[in-house]
Amino acid sequence: MSKYLFILLACSPFICLAQKEDNNWIMGLGTYGLPDTTKINHIQFTNDTFQVTLVNKTVPVFGALGIVSDTSGNLVCYTNDIHIYNKNHEIIENGSNFQSQSQFPYGYPFDQSVIILPLPDTQGVYIMIDGSQKDIVTDLITEKLRYSVIDMNENNGLGKVTEKKITVENSTDTLNIGMLNAIRHGNGNDWWVISTKYESKLHRKYLVTKDGISFYDNQVIGDTVYNGVGYAAYSPSGEWFARYMVYGKTSNPKTAFYLYRFNRCTGQLSAPLRKKFTPPEYYGGVAFSPNSRYLYVANYTKIFQYDLKASDILASEQLVAEYDGFLDGNGVPTRFFGLLLAPDNKIYGIIPGFNCRYLHVIDQPDQPGDACNVIQHAIYLPTDNFGTLPNVPFYRLYAAGIPCDSMVGVVLPPPASEKTGIRVWPVPAADVLYFSVDGALPETFDLQIFDAFGRLALYVPGVQLAPTCTVRLDTLAPGIYFYVLRKAGGKVAKSGRVVKTE
């Protein structure tokens, strides 16, 4: 778990709260080779515990799975990119037929081809991003990105799609399929989404704001990203972006992973690396450790760990797991496929292809080498899973409202839209920072303090400013910090920068 720096508040006690929008996962299977009745696994992370229950619902899941919970960790909705389902596992109003059900009766088979994100600065409104395919018979090419708006305030909380399959600007092109993931912008509200032009070095970037999704810019960088099946992930720190891909012909597959540095404030990729695996071993995935130091790459029969603090990252490769030959009850080999960092700070891995009930676990991913403790086929699910791993961003990079200083390439967020009379002093500060307001102010605020790299140093709900709130800084190291005061509902009342002196 990320280690937050705690500050004693003289004005009120505090509890550190985390975003919980990824607390629910759905895994399941299509009806491929099985009776028409399908069942799904509903995994819940509650207080860092893994709990899984069997849901007797006919929801065909095969590859694509976008899902979102609310900030309290309650399931909101999910999609197999054919239909959108609410918390009761029912298709929501206007939430059907995003892809052809007749062509994909078992669910849409392409991992990370759809994602659902909370729409910034809204309550209960979400945006779903997916793609339409140009020619699935001869080649897997995305011809355009689309978005749909899901308003869960409709139908007494059961939801309605209010905008459907709208083409995203500047996305009508030949794009590589899948690997749609997202990360919060440095302003703490918006989201970055990156796709790549078909078999090229061109990365197309989009921003999701309260107004929807829009094109941001193109960047040509690194080696050619070939079209294929794979997974993409951002590090919890927001400083790294990685992909794993298997591409080429089935008779002559090739596998590689791509790694870039990423600036969540400017959206710029840098320092590209690529590692080709010889011989290629088909399916795999990528995930970062909670402390963002280690990258894990699953390569079908092996899992490798890379130290991102090493002077030569590729040379730091360590083999931390090799397929042990275990077969499930149906004789399915439990090799390695997609990886995903979970809210309990463990990394879970699925089995490639076929229906299988097992999950792998990297139990201590912040530890180097074998100490990371890869436990193969560690979890036995209530029902089968067919190559499905939820596509969710990392929500606990920071709470909403992180300001980015010019030292990391961006400017502070705009000031509050109304004058509150809130004062913060002294700036710079040594051991104490004061927040005050003129007159009576019964309203409470949520206080967040971040370091210069956007990492959360403090989250405090229920701060009262009248007459004065005293915050002790003596446990913080000297340096640049940022504060954000938010009203109930998330509106920024005041934000700014403070320098902590010796």
How does this structure look, described?
With about 500 residues, the chain is an all-beta fold. It has two domains: about 25-395, YVTN repeat-like/Quinoprotein amine dehydrogenase (Methylamine Dehydrogenase, Chain H), CATH 2.130.10; about 405-500, Immunoglobulin-like (Sandwich), CATH 2.60.40. The chain has strands at about 25-30, 40-45, 50-55, 65-70, 75-80, 85, 115-120, 125-135, 140-150, 160-165, 175, 180-185, 190-195, 200-210, 210-225, 230-235, 240-250, 250-260, 270-275, 285-290, 295-300, 300-305, 320, 340, 345-350, 355-360, 375-385, 420-425, 430-435, 445-450, 455-465, 470, 480-485, 490-500. Strands 7, 8, 9, 10 and 11 form a five-stranded antiparallel sheet that branches. A four-stranded antiparallel sheet has the order 12-13-14-15, with no helix packed on it. Strand 25 (about 345-350) and strand 26 (about 355-360) form a beta hairpin. The radius of gyration is 23 Å and the shape is globular. About 45% of the residues are buried.
